[in-house]
Write a structure and sequence with these properties.
With 135 residues, this protein is mainly α. The chain folds into two domains: 85 residues, Multidrug-efflux Transporter Regulator, Chain: A, Domain 2 (Orthogonal Bundle); 49 residues. 71% of the residues lie in helices and 3% in strands.
Length: 135
Protein backbone atom coordinates (compact mmCIF):
# COMPACT_ATOMS: atom_id res chain seq x y z
CA UNK A 1 0.00 0.00 0.00
CA UNK A 2 1.36 3.42 -0.94
CA UNK A 3 0.69 6.26 1.49
CA UNK A 4 0.69 9.98 0.80
CA UNK A 5 3.93 10.29 2.77
CA UNK A 6 5.54 7.71 0.43
CA UNK A 7 4.60 9.64 -2.72
CA UNK A 8 5.29 13.15 -1.43
CA UNK A 9 8.23 14.88 -3.05
CA UNK A 10 11.18 15.29 -0.72
CA UNK A 11 12.65 18.77 -0.39
CA UNK A 12 16.07 19.86 0.81
CA UNK A 13 16.69 21.81 3.99
CA UNK A 14 17.29 25.13 2.19
CA UNK A 15 13.98 24.92 0.34
CA UNK A 16 12.10 23.93 3.49
CA UNK A 17 13.76 26.66 5.54
CA UNK A 18 12.77 29.30 2.97
CA UNK A 19 9.24 27.89 2.79
CA UNK A 20 8.68 28.06 6.56
CA UNK A 21 10.61 31.31 7.08
CA UNK A 22 13.56 30.23 9.24
CA UNK A 23 17.26 29.68 8.67
CA UNK A 24 18.43 26.20 7.78
CA UNK A 25 20.61 26.37 10.90
CA UNK A 26 17.45 26.75 13.00
CA UNK A 27 16.09 23.48 11.61
CA UNK A 28 19.44 21.77 12.21
CA UNK A 29 19.51 23.10 15.80
CA UNK A 30 15.99 21.82 16.45
CA UNK A 31 17.03 18.41 15.15
CA UNK A 32 20.14 18.32 17.39
CA UNK A 33 18.01 19.27 20.41
CA UNK A 34 15.40 16.57 19.57
CA UNK A 35 12.77 19.26 19.04
CA UNK A 36 12.40 17.85 15.52
CA UNK A 37 12.75 14.17 14.73
CA UNK A 38 15.72 13.14 12.59
CA UNK A 39 14.90 13.77 8.91
CA UNK A 40 15.01 11.30 6.07
CA UNK A 41 18.35 11.34 4.27
CA UNK A 42 19.18 10.65 0.65
CA UNK A 43 22.00 8.38 -0.53
CA UNK A 44 24.46 11.27 -0.12
CA UNK A 45 23.33 11.91 3.46
CA UNK A 46 21.49 15.16 2.68
CA UNK A 47 18.38 15.94 4.69
CA UNK A 48 15.12 15.42 2.81
CA UNK A 49 11.69 16.50 4.06
CA UNK A 50 8.28 15.35 2.89
CA UNK A 51 4.97 17.19 3.32
CA UNK A 52 4.28 15.62 6.72
CA UNK A 53 7.70 16.68 8.05
CA UNK A 54 7.22 20.21 6.74
CA UNK A 55 3.79 20.40 8.37
CA UNK A 56 5.28 19.32 11.71
CA UNK A 57 7.97 22.01 11.39
CA UNK A 58 5.27 24.62 10.73
CA UNK A 59 3.24 23.50 13.77
CA UNK A 60 6.31 23.57 16.00
CA UNK A 61 7.22 27.07 14.78
CA UNK A 62 3.72 28.29 15.64
CA UNK A 63 4.07 26.79 19.10
CA UNK A 64 7.41 28.57 19.49
CA UNK A 65 5.97 31.85 18.17
CA UNK A 66 3.22 31.67 20.78
CA UNK A 67 5.70 31.26 23.60
CA UNK A 68 5.79 27.53 24.19
CA UNK A 69 9.17 26.64 25.71
CA UNK A 70 11.40 24.45 23.54
CA UNK A 71 11.32 21.73 26.21
CA UNK A 72 7.53 21.48 25.84
CA UNK A 73 7.80 21.55 22.05
CA UNK A 74 10.27 18.66 22.30
CA UNK A 75 7.77 16.83 24.52
CA UNK A 76 5.06 17.39 21.90
CA UNK A 77 7.36 15.94 19.23
CA UNK A 78 8.23 12.99 21.48
CA UNK A 79 4.54 12.25 21.96
CA UNK A 80 3.99 12.35 18.19
CA UNK A 81 6.82 9.88 17.62
CA UNK A 82 5.63 7.53 20.38
CA UNK A 83 2.12 7.21 18.99
CA UNK A 84 1.34 9.14 15.80
CA UNK A 85 -2.34 8.16 16.06
CA UNK A 86 -2.64 8.89 19.80
CA UNK A 87 -3.85 12.35 20.64
CA UNK A 88 -4.82 12.40 24.33
CA UNK A 89 -1.51 13.66 25.77
CA UNK A 90 -0.87 16.01 22.85
CA UNK A 91 -4.38 17.40 23.18
CA UNK A 92 -3.80 18.08 26.88
CA UNK A 93 -0.47 19.80 26.15
CA UNK A 94 -2.06 21.98 23.44
CA UNK A 95 -5.07 22.86 25.58
CA UNK A 96 -2.76 23.98 28.39
CA UNK A 97 -0.73 26.05 25.96
CA UNK A 98 -3.87 27.59 24.44
CA UNK A 99 -4.99 28.64 27.94
CA UNK A 100 -1.62 30.30 28.52
CA UNK A 101 -1.75 32.05 25.13
CA UNK A 102 -5.30 33.22 25.79
CA UNK A 103 -4.23 34.67 29.15
CA UNK A 104 -1.23 36.37 27.53
CA UNK A 105 -3.48 37.89 24.84
CA UNK A 106 -5.86 39.19 27.53
CA UNK A 107 -2.94 40.72 29.42
CA UNK A 108 -1.59 42.31 26.22
CA UNK A 109 -5.04 43.70 25.40
CA UNK A 110 -5.26 45.20 28.89
CA UNK A 111 -1.83 46.74 28.41
CA UNK A 112 -2.80 48.00 24.97
CA UNK A 113 -5.81 49.75 26.49
CA UNK A 114 -3.52 51.59 28.93
CA UNK A 115 -1.11 52.51 26.12
CA UNK A 116 -4.01 53.83 24.01
CA UNK A 117 -5.23 55.90 26.96
CA UNK A 118 -1.78 57.45 27.38
CA UNK A 119 -1.57 58.20 23.65
CA UNK A 120 -4.99 59.87 23.78
CA UNK A 121 -3.93 61.84 26.85
CA UNK A 122 -0.71 63.07 25.22
CA UNK A 123 -2.49 63.93 21.97
CA UNK A 124 -5.08 65.89 23.92
CA UNK A 125 -2.33 67.74 25.80
CA UNK A 126 -0.59 68.64 22.55
CA UNK A 127 -3.87 69.75 21.03
CA UNK A 128 -4.67 71.90 24.07
CA UNK A 129 -1.16 73.39 24.07
CA UNK A 130 -1.37 74.15 20.33
CA UNK A 131 -4.78 75.79 20.74
CA UNK A 132 -3.58 77.90 23.69
CA UNK A 133 -0.46 78.99 21.79
CA UNK A 134 -2.46 80.08 18.75
CA UNK A 135 -4.77 82.33 20.75
Amino acid sequence: MTTTADTDPFLGIGTVAAQVGVAADTIRYYERQAILPPPHRDASGRRRYNTAAIHLIEVLLHLRDTGMPLTQIAEFTRLVSLDPAGVHDRLHLLEQHRDEVTQRIKSWNDSLTIIDQKIDDYQQRLSTTATATNQ
